[in-house]
Amino acid sequence: MSLEKIAAPRTYEDLTSQLAQRHGKLSDRLRQIAEFAVRHPNDMALGTVSSLAQAIGVQPSAMLRFANSLGYDGFSEMQQVFRARLVDAASPSYRDRIASMRRGQDGDRRVGDPADVLAEFVADDIASLESLYAAVPAGKLDQAVRLLAEADTVFLLAQGRSFPIAYYLDYGLCRLDLRSHLLDGVGGLVHQRARVMTTRDVLVVVSFKDYAPDTLRVATEVAARGVPVVVITDVPLSPYAALATLSLEVGEASNKPFRTLVAPICLAQTLVVAIGHHLAARNGAIS
Asked: What residues does the HTH rpiR-type domain cover (predicted)?
C-alpha cells in the first residue's frame, strides 16, 4: 500500500521522521527504498534515479512512486532534501563543542575520563578511514598524483583546522625535491603570492566546512586563470565543486563535536608516497 498524499517534508529530519511514522503503510517496494534512503543518505543525494534503482533492486518507476508518496512532485525535488543535508548549517562554536563533550550523550553526565575520550576518538578515526577508503576512487588518486608530480610548482593553501594537512603536503613534496610553496597568509600577501601561478603549476586547496572565505576566494581567482586546482574537501557539494579540476572528498564519518583529521592526513600521506613511486618509475624509465 502506498502513502496518501501528504505535505512534502522540507528537511532531512522531517523526511526521516515521516518515514518512521508511516513505515508500516508503505508497500514492500517502497519500504525497501525507504530503508536504503535512511541507511545511505549520501547515495540518495548524489545518485541518479536509474543508478539508485539498480543499487536497491527496484524499477526506476518505483523511485518516482516513492517520492510522490512523500508528497514530492518528482524525484529531483525529494533529492534536494538529501543534498541539503550534506551542506547543512554551520558548526557550533568551540565553546559549545567543549560543553557538549563534557555533558555527554544524556545531556547531564560529565564526560572527562581520558580513556573514554581516547576510545571515542579512536572509534571515530577508524570509521573515517573506512569511509575514506570507500570514497576516493583509484582513478582520482592516479590523476592527482600525475598532476602534482608533473607541475612546475605545487602551491598549497589552507586555513584553520585544514592547515596541518597543507603543511604536511608541503613537507612531503619538499622531501621529494619537488618545487612546493605553502601559501600561509603571513603578512597578508596570500592573494599577491597567488598571482604568480601559471597554468603549468597546480594549486592544492584543503578546505572543510566551514569553508574559509579567503581560501575560496583565492581558489576561485586562480581557477579563473586556468590554473589546475586540486581540492581536498569534505563532500562533493562543497563550494569548490564548480571550480576544482579534481576534488578528493574525505567526508565526515561522525557528527561529534570535534572532527577528526586522521582521514585527510592519511590521504595526504598517500599522495606523497604515491608521487614518490611515480617519480621513481619515471626516472627509471628515463635512465
From this structure: 13-89
Fold of 131-286: Rossmann fold (3.40.50)
Q: Tens place of pLDDT for every residue, the chain, 287 residues?
A: 444 457 889 888 888 888 877 877 889 999 899 988 887 888 898 888 999 999 999 999 999 999 999 999 999 999 989 888 766 543 455 545 555 555 555 455 555 678 777 877 787 788 788 778 877 888 999 999 999 999 999 999 999 889 999 999 999 999 999 999 999 878 888 888 899 999 999 999 999 888 889 999 999 999 999 999 999 998 776 788 778 999 998 876 455 567 789 999 999 999 999 999 999 988 876 65
**Closest C-alpha among 218, 238, 231 to residue 264:** 231
Residue 74 CA to residue 2 CA, distance in Å, equals 15
Give, for 231, the enclosing helix (H) or strand (E): strand 229-233
